[in-house]
Amino acid sequence: MRFDLSGQIHGFAGQLLRVNLSSGKISKEPLDLDVARRLLGGKGYAAYVLYNELRPGIDPLGPENKLVFMTGPLTGTPAPLGNRFCVCTKSPLTGAWLDSHCGGSWGPELKWAGYDGVIVEGVASRPVYVSVDNEDVRINDASWLWGSDTFSTERILKDRHGSRGIPRVAGIGPAGEKLALVASVISEVRAAGRGGAGAVMGSKKLKAIVVRGDAKKPEDLVADPKAFGDAVKKAHGKTGEDFRTSVRKRGGLVIMGTANIVDGINEAGGWPTRNFQTGMFEHVLDVDGMVFTQKLWVPPESPGRRPCWNCTILCAHLGIVKEGRWAGTVTEGPEYETLWAYGPQCGVGSREAIARADYLSDYYGIDTISVGNTIGFLMECYEKGLISREETDGLDLRFGNADAMVEAVEKTGQLSGNLGRLIAMGSKKAAEKIGSGSDRFAIHVKGMEFPAYEPRAGQGMGLAYAKSDRGACHLRPWPAGAEMLGWDGKDPRTTEGKAKWIKDNTEDVASAFDSSGLCLFISFAINADDVYDMLAPATGFSGFTNAEFKRIGERINNLTRAFNVREGFSRKDDTLPYRQLNEPLPVGPCKGAVVRLDEMLPEYYLFCGWDSEGRPTAAKLKELGLDFAIG
Amino acid sequence: MRFDLSGQIHGFAGQLLRVNLSSGKISKEPLDLDVARRLLGGKGYAAYVLYNELRPGIDPLGPENKLVFMTGPLTGTPAPLGNRFCVCTKSPLTGAWLDSHCGGSWGPELKWAGYDGVIVEGVASRPVYVSVDNEDVRINDASWLWGSDTFSTERILKDRHGSRGIPRVAGIGPAGEKLALVASVISEVRAAGRGGAGAVMGSKKLKAIVVRGDAKKPEDLVADPKAFGDAVKKAHGKTGEDFRTSVRKRGGLVIMGTANIVDGINEAGGWPTRNFQTGMFEHVLDVDGMVFTQKLWVPPESPGRRPCWNCTILCAHLGIVKEGRWAGTVTEGPEYETLWAYGPQCGVGSREAIARADYLSDYYGIDTISVGNTIGFLMECYEKGLISREETDGLDLRFGNADAMVEAVEKTGQLSGNLGRLIAMGSKKAAEKIGSGSDRFAIHVKGMEFPAYEPRAGQGMGLAYAKSDRGACHLRPWPAGAEMLGWDGKDPRTTEGKAKWIKDNTEDVASAFDSSGLCLFISFAINADDVYDMLAPATGFSGFTNAEFKRIGERINNLTRAFNVREGFSRKDDTLPYRQLNEPLPVGPCKGAVVRLDEMLPEYYLFCGWDSEGRPTAAKLKELGLDFAIG
After folding, report:
1. Which member of A358, A394, A557, B155 has the lowest number of beta carbons within 10 Å of its beta carbon?
2. What is the tally of helices (H) and strands (E) in chain A?
3. Size of interface A-B (CB pairs under 8 A)
4. Other C-beta atoms within 10 Å of B312: how many?
């Protein structure tokens, strides 16, 4: 498929950086506009690069794996919430496709420096960091910085490169260096958290990428400023009205951040507690959004909140622990997922302990979801006598032991002791090591740990987890609002109609949003049509139709699926843990439910145009213009 | 005394900021050039302000106290090491005069913004921070930031004010907020550490001062560029030759930082160990400069070192703990004083524990010298049974217990438990609380704890501690090089000639250096004449002679002495602890010695032109042009 492209590039910077750490070669290559038309940026473009450049079966932590840091066409433009970048690679946690997304200011800065993305190849002979200052791109020695926590890494590198405004840093902490499979990439105290992209950076001995750019201005990125301005105005209008995103109306995200949904998810029986043994937490009122707002976070109106670049919905919250053992701890968050992972998942109702664990996770660079989930899993193992106190390095790892939970997080960040190393490998590999049937309650898909939604309290969520390209992910799509919070009135107990709903109305849309460079949270207020209305005048793509934009999501999902199929994944991997498929949920409106995956998965494959093993058919790939991915 | 002043101001910015936190009034006032001629900047100018504006007998933590942040005329000029500012106030730790100095980049930035200093008055009704961006000066709400550690404070405020280059922050952590008498002011991971200036900031509810400036350029600050350039070149030549400061010759400060003197001081029997019970540490080789260089710090040639602005001797070292319990800890240091305070003073030979304690001290904003000294004091109390394990909150506070030492530092930063609150009041007040004769081995002068030199191993050091304006200080003057390291061949055991040497050749010179804005460490390589050669063309003061410059130090020392006399200090306070005066030093070349203070102090007073009670005579004050200070 070829599009008619005008000479001038808009939306995109038009250029990619390629950095080979083995040879030290740095090259700049034009963005392939044909690919950009078909897959946009972000995850979509990166999938094209990695599908074509990675040999199947490679070791994710070996020299052949690559890392793609990628922005979307709306990243760094004046589009509200246009601040995302993603890190894509073959995941060391799952062995599958991985895209992990992050806000802040790094993505826009990269775009302004003149690049849509950075492709990192090879392995450096000693630790390095890459610095990008507009045209000036270098590989710098970082032996001296190796071992440093992420806060110090940012501080020190900003200071070194900050003569003309504050540069932005994306980097790893000690956990990534030591190849923890749950290591994240941290930027501006935000995380591209999931799937172990931090370990891939560590394997390449890449400590950080520092970016400063002013070669391009946000306004100048846009092809048709008038039409774009109108669409942005419309988007602002909608975000200003929605009960979740409106600052004026003191929306849920504004006041309580992502934690605004805690009470609702708990009431739906969908708040996984004590390693998913139940779905309601008895201490929910100690850790819900309102109590964090009242007791830990700076006030909603405070200038202390530090939103991502050009964010208008302000979900980010700054927390300061004022009293007790962890007084002085400052954390950006905790987010909904994090407060769940270190809260109910571990049976912990202490806000201060959760905040401390959140801080430590950022400090060492580890994924809060996978780490908290795995600690909860090990707590269940410990209480069941499957691991001894010796194996926990002396910690009394019972549910509810807040001190032990915090200590376990710290050990994970350091990979210290038996316990730290165990958690750092994630729940799947930990269960393999422990044996004794513990894999029945290791709560993951394809090796990636579940986040904070119990799928027995929402059948669509079960399908979403099972089939997701990167493993158990709550964002591709996020059916919880409709199924558990009643926002769009979907019955959580039924499987009927869920396959088509998941595929058409949510999953494809989520991928299209992600590849645009917008934060997914704007989808609370605007829909795919609104995104198209910004994208078309931003890029100036001629003949770029709304229908074509909507196909992009489907195209991306087929391409990452093809990537996984080539790696050996099939229907057997699109499944859920024993617990979710066999043990009835003990509480809540969906009491008694298990996930009836078999009622949805075959139907889902059908809607996708995939065969009974979950493989995209040649016809489907051809239809989507992905001929190169026909096996 | 009046000087003939030309209209154009050089060296100085020519303007002071005055910020009244009670009324919210911000005013700018011209620098008094007559005062600047007589006392230069920094400590000297601040002493003039505080002597004239503070009523005697006020509560240091009450609304009447003031804080003066002051630079010197060479701060921010191209003079090497011209980067210092000081924080001056009435000390809450001692009740006496306090000037506490700091490097980094904050001082130069303030000068470039157009101000020589900031005078802070009153008390804010709720937490605030002051922002200075050239002409634009504001008092901003900081309620949201209250409770934050110093690293987060810097990070968050830099991000908020960093659109045009990196602003510089000087602020306090939780300890200052909670009025710990050992609270420091932290800027760029450097400290204006001693005497509790951080508590004064806390009492005023002033979290930080953020500064960004480019109204003035370093070169433009200088009156006579040619003569100044020649003097700077000469200074560079000398620092490039000296065995301590030369980068080319891999000088001691360059390779090992201030820790380069550890072995020498220990061999002199002057390295206080286990609360000054002895003067040599058996684990010295685990914590000397060479082993820190080999095991903890980034290499001397590394780009990771972060010197102060325009520093050419590079004493600052970046330390990263790579293994063990505190792996991932990043610290700038530890300096000689810090590694002593948390090392031999507590009987601790673990580099990692010392580095961790250093980090925590910066994090919470507490003075490493006073805190480590006080912990050592309490360890002796604990071993002697004067405080119980209950009073240490369960810590086994024996000498050598590294974990307990680190925990005690953390508790101090938080003022948590009985132990944290006890340490936070410093050794003098802690001894008063403990009683039982513990004051005999509470090692302080005027309430300020000794640093890392045992005066029984150097009589001049004993006099220096006893008479110093701010309490036991090793820098006004620093006789250790001459007496203990043999650099200028002074017999440590004799008292003969020490009074005059301390006064004329070291003390007055140190004060003149300090008030110039230069870092004292350049005095290893250049002398007062060299400073004069830079100062005269920098300021362009007409008729400013070398002789006059040398008098400035004496003038400053008389003015701070007059300040203390007015506060009720006299000869009885110019003394040393019982231990130093009565218990013979058990080891080393000075084995058997006590400090024979009575052989030096009266003579010292005589050379100073002070009466037998240590009060400056009217004649002396008149001679120095300090008529206003005649009691």
Report:
1. A394
2. 25, 16
3. 125
4. 17
Backbone angles phi and psi of A464, in degrees to 5: -60, -45
Domain boundaries, chain A: 15-221, 241-449
The DSSP-derived string for B303-368 is TT--PPTT-SS----EEE--SSTTTT-EEE---HHHHHHTTGGGT---HHHHHHHHHHHHHHTB-H
Q: Which CATH class is domain B15-221?
A: alpha beta
- Reduced to 3 states (helix: H, G, I; strand: E, B; else coil), residue B461 is helix
3-state secondary structure B12-75: CCCEEEEEECCCCCEEEEECCHHHHHHHCCHHHHHHHHHHHHCCCCCCCCCCCCCEEEEECCCC
Which class is domain A241-449? mainly alpha
Torsion angles phi and psi, residue B238, rounded to 5:
-70, -45
Q: pTM of the prediction?
A: 0.91
Give which of A404, A159, A538, A216 is closest to B316, Cα–Cα.
A159
Chain A: give the shortest CA distance to residue B471, in Å: 30
**What does the pLDDT read at residue B349?**
97
> Torsion over CA of A496, A501, A507 and A512, rounded to 10 degrees?
170
Q: How far is A340 from chain B (nearest CA, A)?
A: 24
Closest to A106 in 3D by CA, of A140, A127, A78, A75: A75
3-state secondary structure of B227: helix
From the CA of B495, how many Å to the nearest CA of chain A? 47
Mean pLDDT by 10 residues, chain A (631 residues): 54 97 97 95 98 98 98 98 98 98 97 97 98 97 95 93 89 98 97 98 98 94 96 97 92 93 97 98 96 91 88 93 88 96 98 97 98 98 98 98 98 96 98 98 98 98 98 95 93 97 91 94 95 96 90 96 98 98 98 98 97 97 97 81
A327 touches chain B (CB under 8 A): yes
The two beta strands, B206-212 and B318-320, are unpaired
B363 touches chain A (CB under 8 A): yes
Topology match between the domains A15-221 and A241-449: no
SS3 track for B591-606: CCCCCCHHHCHHHHHH
Residue A77's nearest CA partner among A141, A170, A9 is A9
Question: Does A144 sit within 8 Å of B298, measured CB to CB?
Answer: yes
